[in-house]
Structure formats: C-alpha cells, structure tokens
C-alpha cells in the first residue's frame, strides 16, 4: 500500500501499471519534491487524446507538490520511436519539427502551471544536448553499457522483428538516446522519475540502469497502462482519424462529442483518468445506469474538454449539444463546419456521396447503409433515398446540417 499522496491517487485513478522500485519511489516522494518527466516526440503539430494519460500524470504530479517536466523531443524526433510500430516513421526536416514543437507547446501550456514557484512545471528540449553530442563519445561513454541481447528482448523490438518488418540501425539507437535524456535531465535538473505508457517500459528501464551504472544515482520509472475502450478499440481512434487536442485540427464541439460518445462501461474509468473530479465522484457517476449514465457522459465530456480547451469553450460545446439534441435547434455558431464545393452543390450531389465525403462516415458504402437504415438526416429531416439529390436549394442560412443518429452533427458550407 502506497504512503505518498501522489502514488495513492495515481493508483486509485488507474495510472499505475509498472514501477522499477515501488517502495523506493514511494519513499522518495515522501522525502521531498521529486522531478518527474515525460517525453513527447514532435511527429505532428498537435498531440491527440492518446497523449492525455501522460499529461494527466504530469498534472497529478504537480497537484501533489512535485515538479513536472515536459521533454520535447527536438532531437529524438529526427530518428522516430520504433516502439510497436509496423514501419519506420517518416523523417522530418528541421522546419517541420519546429512547426510541430510550437503546436505541441500550445497543447501543453494550458494544462500545466509553468512558473518559478515550487512545483512549477518545466519545459525541456533534448535537441539542446543531443544536437551537440559526439557519436564516438556516445559509443564510448554510453553504448558500452547497453547489451544487444537485452535490447532485442524488449517487447517493442521483438514484436517488430517477429513480423519480419525489419528495424533500421537508426531506429535501434532510439532507446540509447532516450536513456541519455534521462541522465541529462538528472544531471542538469535533478529529475529522478521518468513516466510514460507501458510501451515505453524497456526504454525507461534502460535509462534507470544507465544512470545507476554511470552516476551511481537512484532514479525511478513508472508506466501507465495502454488504454483501449471497453469494446477493444484503441483509445483516441475513430473512423475519422485521431482525436486531436488542437482546436485547429479538431473543433471543440467534436472533441466534446468524442467524450460524450464514450461507451457506458468506460465512463467511470475515463472520469478518473481524464478529469480532475474526486475519485469518489467519478465512481458514483460511473455506477449510474439506464438513462442516467448519459448525464455522467455529459459531465465527462464537459470536464475533459475544459482541461483541454478551457471551461468557457467546454460549456459552450455542452450548450450546443443540449440545444441540438434536446431541442433540435440549428446552432451554427458552434457546430463543426466543413467545406463543400459550391459548383458541385449547385449541380447537385447524391445524398450518399455528400455524407460519404463529409467525414461523418468512412466511405460512400457506409453512408448508403446508414441511409437505408434510417440513421441519416439532412437539416433535421430524415433522408430516405440514398440517391436523393442535394443542392444549394437545400441551404438554410447558407449551410447544410448533416446528422447521423442523435450524436453526430456537422455543417457544410459551400465555398
């Protein structure tokens, strides 16, 4: 049983999966403030819902008086983490990496407190030390402590090799560089804890071992479980792609709707992982049944959206949903908006193709099936004929409102 408040709450919320030394970490957290970091490679200009577990772990660390460190992988992004990937990542140039860094900074800055007060979060960029690293120096000082046999035993590497997809020498170096990051953060800033998803376990253990071997210091690793929904779907993936944290890549209303559409069996678990509500309240809401579970889903959606986009935007999304779902109102100001070609609309577009190309469904075939099943509406009116021609004569206040069931809505505006 943990004694430190951070680990007690982390375990109660479901963040604890593996730890290199549970008793030692518990004691260190009780002894005084601990610096803990999580790395984010700059492979896109926004983080997505799959990163929220890591961000919430940093928030929880800060809540209990410790120092969270967000490490941006300006250096390691040039290689790409091969963990459990089926193929090598596309290599990015410096301009794209910097663009991505700026976008991810915007994601993180609103969810952690960055200041000089005790427990204030810190940003770091591993390009600050990796870009100046001599390869020979790395081989002699660090590479000597890594066993190829052990690296081949990592699940992330073994899975890739078993699929006969190969692993480049460039990718194989990633674990060494991540371990080097841990040592640099420990030396420069006294960071003694690395956290991450369970897919990072091998890399984290390697970093702990490197610091022990070269500096004779005790540091710790802690991982959270990789999440899937109750039905087995990978967390954060939908038919429309990743659930981005940036409002420029995914409208706030769509983000709210993602959480509102959670499966009943996931509500209590997601409330504990993705909101700041007390654990007891999360468990109470998650235990609701029947129609009441929908009220819990609205709480989940609003609280999770408030963390990412702010309370005002979350409340606006919740109100839009209320007006749209409960009153059937066309709230154009807040519904997600996507373009449709003005010339094509003027000529007329079959309903199945309009839905298929809107992004609400994955294909025209799926659109046909949903229309035949009575699940599609245009401007709140059922679409009964998949070949029904939609034109600019159907515009209301300059837009078309497409709906699938009661939960998915968007506006199409001609341009």
Automatic annotation (TrEMBL):
<feature type="binding site">
    <location>
        <position position="37"/>
    </location>
    <ligand>
        <name>L-tyrosine</name>
    </ligand>
</feature>
<keyword id="KW-0067">ATP-binding</keyword>
<dbReference type="InterPro" id="IPR014729">
    <property type="entry name" value="Rossmann-like_a/b/a_fold"/>
</dbReference>
<comment type="function">
    <text>Catalyzes the attachment of tyrosine to tRNA(Tyr) in a two-step reaction: tyrosine is first activated by ATP to form Tyr-AMP and then transferred to the acceptor end of tRNA(Tyr).</text>
</comment>
<protein>
    <recommendedName>
        <fullName>Tyrosine--tRNA ligase</fullName>
        <ecNumber>6.1.1.1</ecNumber>
    </recommendedName>
</protein>
<comment type="similarity">
    <text>Belongs to the class-I aminoacyl-tRNA synthetase family. TyrS type 1 subfamily.</text>
</comment>
<dbReference type="Pfam" id="PF00579">
    <property type="entry name" value="tRNA-synt_1b"/>
</dbReference>
<keyword id="KW-0694">RNA-binding</keyword>
<feature type="short sequence motif" description="'KMSKS' region">
    <location>
        <begin position="234"/>
        <end position="238"/>
    </location>
</feature>
<dbReference type="InterPro" id="IPR024107">
    <property type="entry name" value="Tyr-tRNA-ligase_bac_1"/>
</dbReference>
<feature type="binding site">
    <location>
        <position position="174"/>
    </location>
    <ligand>
        <name>L-tyrosine</name>
    </ligand>
</feature>
<comment type="subunit">
    <text>Homodimer.</text>
</comment>
<dbReference type="InterPro" id="IPR002307">
    <property type="entry name" value="Tyr-tRNA-ligase"/>
</dbReference>
<keyword id="KW-0547">Nucleotide-binding</keyword>
<dbReference type="InterPro" id="IPR024088">
    <property type="entry name" value="Tyr-tRNA-ligase_bac-type"/>
</dbReference>
<feature type="binding site">
    <location>
        <position position="178"/>
    </location>
    <ligand>
        <name>L-tyrosine</name>
    </ligand>
</feature>
<dbReference type="InterPro" id="IPR002305">
    <property type="entry name" value="aa-tRNA-synth_Ic"/>
</dbReference>
<feature type="binding site">
    <location>
        <position position="237"/>
    </location>
    <ligand>
        <name>ATP</name>
    </ligand>
</feature>
<keyword id="KW-0648">Protein biosynthesis</keyword>
<dbReference type="GO" id="GO:0004831">
    <property type="term" value="F:tyrosine-tRNA ligase activity"/>
</dbReference>
<dbReference type="InterPro" id="IPR036986">
    <property type="entry name" value="S4_RNA-bd_sf"/>
</dbReference>
<keyword id="KW-0963">Cytoplasm</keyword>
<keyword id="KW-0436">Ligase</keyword>
<keyword id="KW-0030">Aminoacyl-tRNA synthetase</keyword>
